[in-house]
Automatic annotation (TrEMBL):
GO cellular component: membrane
UniProt superkingdom: Bacteria
Source organism per UniProt: Echinicola vietnamensis (strain DSM 17526 / LMG 23754 / KMM 6221)
Domain Signal transduction histidine kinase internal region: 167-244
Lineage: Bacteria, Pseudomonadati, Bacteroidota, Cytophagia, Cytophagales
This protein's name: Putative regulator of cell autolysis
Amino acid sequence: MYEGLKLHKHVSILIHILAWLLIGAVLFLLGPLSWNTTLPVEFWYRQLTLVVVLVAFFYTNKDFFVPKLLFNGKNWLFLLVILGLCFTLMYAVEYFERLIRLPELMHEAFHPDDDKPYKPKKDYIDVFLLLVLFLAAGISTSIAAVQKWQADETLRRQLDQQRISSELSYLKAQINPHFFFNTLNNIYSLTSIDVESARIALHKLSRMMRYVLYETEKDQTLLSKEIGFIKDFIELMKLRISEKVQIELDIEDHVEDRVVAPMLLLPFVENCFKHGVSSRYPGIISIRIHTENDLLTLETSNKIVPKNMGSPESHQHGIGLSNTKRRLSLLYHKKHELLIDDQNAENEYRVTLKINLA
């Protein structure tokens, strides 16, 4: 990584050097070399001085005045400083030309047979030089603004990535321990009734834990693994619920090995069992997961049943449903659609999630 940054820095410096060589050649060499006359050496001193002045003005503005004044909201002060510098540099260059007698020497070079004495101009205004200075100020300001925008965008993406990672870690920590404890108790009870079922359930629980510990460390996982995790979760939840609860599943068995962010679907499935299961009331939980081309669709619905206020679930908020919404907005911005309907005549909680995995 360090070598890459070092190479990038060297390439950037080389680009700046080549750009200034091109600008200097076009502005200060191309025209004079096409003139059909012998120019005094003082003219080339003046051209070299102009290049040095432009380079110094360009980087002083880009690296000092723009960050210190313009980016701090001192717009009028920045404008006054730049205008003042442009006129000051123009006067300084004009004074330098007169100091080395360049106007007189140029007159002699272009009018060698003119017997009339050279009459110097009375003012110090050089419109061409002033426009070049304005151009340098505009370009350096634009480059500084673009670099700041790029740096801000890079920082924003880094912060978003850190936020996603921290939210995923929080999501993992939020996985309902009550679910795991009850599942282990149910498996323990099964050992005295149906050893084979207890063995299968324990295997499913271990697969879930392996997914949580290892797959969620990655930014993406295979959709087949995510769906497998959902299926294991549902099978283990069946050990806890009574026969009053009907579960309707329509989960695609064979999906293409597309990639998806880990643990995006589970919070919506877990929410069905959190709000749709009661020991006193009948309920129906419907879960549908399908893919078509690049579109992943999750549809869930469950009856909203009142909770026993003394149960652990009544004081919990699922395994990060709000965090999952935030992760969706960060990871699949403008590539997902989430619809939640909890205000309907059937007293059902319905979720439709569509994600474009392209």
